[in-house]
Amino acid sequence: MKETFMKRKNTLKVNVGGIPIGGGSFISVQSMTKTKTSDYNATIEQIKRLESVGCDIVRVTVNDKEAADAMPIIVKSVNIPVVADIHFNHIFALKSIDAGVSKVRINPGNIGNEERIKEVLTKAKERKIPIRIGVNSGSLEKDILEKYGYPTAEALYESAMRHVKICEKYDFNDIVISVKSTDVKLMIEAYRYISEETNYPLHLGVTEAGTTRVGTIKSAIGIGTLLAEGIGDTIRVSLTDEPEKEVEVGKEILKALNLKQGGVNLIVCPTCGRLEVDLFPIVHEIEEKVKNITKPISVAILGCAVNGIGEAAEADIGIACGKGEGILFIKGKIIKKIPESEFVSAIMNEIEKI
Fold first, then answer.
1. Partners of 176 in the β-ladder
2. Could you tell me which residues come within 8 angstroms of residue 280 by beta carbon, excluding any fewer than 6 positions away?
């Protein structure tokens, strides 16, 4: 039987403000601010919230002069690496590098001619910061789109590699590549293609994925499929929601694939007609209370004895439910019987002990 989980591809390593990407490093989780960058107080506050939920790298749009002017203040006020997201105007990339950003993202479809790119590469090389070549299916160069007729994996690859070659022409190899699409199947195909053809680290994401419910599903399928195949070095989940949600979903994708250690792993049954407690609100309350815990702890809450006794016993902390009550397990040992009303407090008390 063919093994479906592949060993991670050992790509080249780049450094983003002290966070390694590629080369077998841990897979970092990124997000992007949703404030007006020119409102640096709001942007800084949002980045600090992202820091608090474990975001590794944050991207900030630099789309006008006021945003560029705010970048020095933003970079100096936060503790995680800041990436400047640049479209159309390379001058904003140059100003962002001067402001001290840790990486610049450029979109090949709209950044302009080679001379402009050369200016950005020269300054980035002086400051020893990487460039992400961020290709999107919705903004491919006109000639490439005309060649293929519509966005294809080959078209995304050709766009990315056109600009990789420009970088290499000027002896710039500190590169991260993304080939995102709103089409999950196309996104998977494009990343597979580029992973086969290059050794640069890859930034995974489904662009414009949608609301939290839909975007989580699309991202879990697209990003999760590639990670399971050993492809990908850093991820960003794009959601029409607060950026903290993006980080939470990204971390859960990594945890589901055993690619991230730390945090509470909740093992909860889907429930059925055998359930004799009101499990939904209990689980939701526990999930909210433990979301910012970083220590690796497994907590099992099982609704009945069919699988509950065994799976609850295998967790660090577990409850196997009965009629209006449950048996509390700690590392396989039965501790006591507790009423349904004490499930949450009992679990949280045991987590605090750990």
1. 132
2. 271
Q: CATH topology for 264-353?
A: Sulfite Reductase Hemoprotein; domain 1 (3.30.413)
Ramachandran assignment for 239, one of left (phi > 0), alpha (psi -120 to 50 degrees), beta (any other): beta
Please check whether residue 238 is in contact with residue 264, taking contact to mean a CB–CB distance below 8 angstroms: no
Write the CA distances from 348 to 52, 285, 319, 340, integer angstroms.
20, 11, 12, 14
Select from 3.40.50.1110, 3.60.20.10, 3.30.1490.100, 3.20.20.20 the CATH code of 14-256. Answer: 3.20.20.20
Q: Rounded distance, CA 59 to CA 33, Å?
A: 6
Q: How many Å separate Cα 295 from the centre of its chain?
A: 19
Q: Mark residue 329 as left, alpha or beta (left: phi above 0; alpha: psi -120 to 50; beta: remaining).
A: beta
Q: What CA–CA distance (Å, rounded) separates 236 from 153? A: 20
**Tokens 């402009």 belong to which residue?**
116
Cβ count within 10 A of residue 111: 20
CB-neighbour burial class of residue 45 (10 A; exposed 0-12, middle 13-18, buried 19+): middle
Count other C-beta atoms under 10 Å from residue 341's C-beta.
12
At which residue do the structure tokens 């060993």 appear?
A: 7
- With a CB cutoff of 8 Å and minimum separation 6, the contacts of 10 are 23, 24
Domain locations along the chain:
14-256, 264-353
Give the chain's residues under pLDDT 50.
1-4
- CA dist 136 and 263 (Å) reads 32
